[in-house]
Amino acid sequence: MSTSVVADTSALTGRSLKHILRSPDTIITTAVMPIAIMLLFVYVFGGAIQTGTASYVDYLLPGILLITIASGVAYTSHRLFLDLQGGIVERFQSMPIARSSVLWSHVLTSLVANLVSLAIVVGVALLMGFRSGADVLAWLGVTGILVLFTLALTWLAVIAGLAAKSVDGASAFAYPLIFLPFLSSAFVPTDTMPGPVRWFAENQPVTPIVNSIRALLAGTPVGGELWIALGWCTGILIVAAVIATRRYNRRLR
């Protein structure tokens, strides 16, 4: 980014973050559903699920973190849609600011808001008995994966916000993303699943991401799945960012 793009993006990001600070319920709402799912599975279903780990909350947390992100990015498409419908984007374009700064401000706002929601979820998990054998480098690795995953899903949210015809449509795209971890290794080992479901679970993006985070948090070797996880996140990020940028530029012509 050039200096002007960075400055414009910083200013617009500050504007978006102020809106969130005035309405923190969006962050709380984002964290409530994943926490509810975590409570349900740990205290209701956890005793019946065999994962081969001492603590089910340790096994479950990586998937819950991804659900938190999938839930949180829905607000990005929602906010972008409202900006487009309210005419604020066109007003920005009449000003001497970088065109790309509008999209980047929404992306960075999403990143900050989701990191706060993730911290809340991890805090609750600690109260529920979650413990990690990860060192500082492993925690940095987990943070890096979560940041990359958040950016990838956020750019998908930008596409949804640009393409939506209604407020409900802008947020509805996140439902399949929230459901995807349920068809992965997030809640149970994939080898307990029937054939077709197991094949899908082992070949979709969430499973290698969950397994990589789980291994890092446990302080065990990650293996080749880390590179698969990074490949999925990077690929989705690049493709979604390119599509979103092109659609945005066409819309403003």
SSE blueprint:
Layout: H1 3-22, H2 25-45, H3 56-72, H4 74-86, H5 88-93, H6 100-127, H7 136-163, H8 167-172, H9 174-179, H10 195-202, H11 206-218, H12 225-251
Helix pairs in contact: 1-6, 2-3, 2-6, 3-6, 3-7, 3-11, 4-6, 4-7, 6-7, 7-11, 7-12, 11-12
Describe this structure in words.
The chain has 253 residues and is mainly alpha-helical. Helices cover 76% and strands 0% of the residues. The protein has helices at residues 3-22, 25-45, 56-72, 74-86, 88-93, 100-127, 136-163, 167-172, 174-179, 195-202, 206-218, 225-251. The chain is elongated. The protein starts with a helix and ends with a helix. The relative contact order is 0.14. The model has no long low-confidence stretch (mean pLDDT 86).
